[in-house]
Design a protein that fits this description.
single chain; 304 residues; 12 helices; ABC_transptr_periplasmic_BD; signal; Fe/B12 periplasmic-binding domain-containing protein; ABC_Transporter_SBP
Length: 304
Amino acid sequence: MKNKLFIILGFLCMSTLLFAGGSKEGSTKQEKGREMYGYMVPASVPQRTAVGQVVLLQMLDMLDVDIVARPSTKREISARYKDKTEIGMPMRVDLEKLKEVNPDFYLATGDRGAPIAEQLKALNIPAEFLQTTTYTDILNSMKYLGEVYNKQKEAAAYVKEVEDVVAKVKAANKNKKPLKVLIIAGFPNSMSIHTEGSFVGSLIKVLGAENIWKDNTVKNTTVPMNLELVKASNPDIILLTSHGDAKDTAKMYEKEFQSDFWQKIDAVKNKRYYSLDTKIFFIAGSPYISEALETLGNYFYGSK
């Protein structure tokens, strides 16, 4: 009888231990949060966020989210972030300064394979790396940030505003032949072509215009200038982006377009080439999509 009692008690103890172990494992999974668009949503709202890129500062500002640290930059940023601790350039983060602010979450652009990812892991700082290059990237990242910081309503309002602008601009293009567009990436001494995978390239696709560069197998956001393609396509509109000094790039464009080759291109003949504002059309992506789409709509179809 005693043996049977010991056996029963043994089973009860083992069951209790197994149950406790299972509960602990479940708790650990909960702490890790859940996934959204391939990103991990923390289980609780971060209270001390450090940010690695300006585009993410801009997005968090739109969601009314505070931070403890920001990247060093010459670009214009919101007044609310100017006095926050600077942690260096995006590709050269000052880890000592980062540790000093004791962040509970680090946000950056890029991918989890970046060198900084391993460094943050060693410091036990939770981090996520967002894609912000294209139209879809920006919208998905904004919705993700809305989930992370319990700002779902603000994120939804942002997305709706963008989609409303798209609908308005596309309505102006209804039943019209799609415009052929060349997007030039201008450097002080050279020019490249933006692909569909670039920020501006993704915007013109959303609006229903045609990028003259049609090889979507190319993963790069820019490719070398191809004058034969430009001649054969004869674009209706040329969009000009600046990389480096905007004034030097503008001078380069003006000089280049005086050549016999460019004078035969419809977009140049009809003076339908436009320099894009780098504050709105930033090369690495920009959350000012509504303004960007409105601008392109005016250039393309004269929509107001």
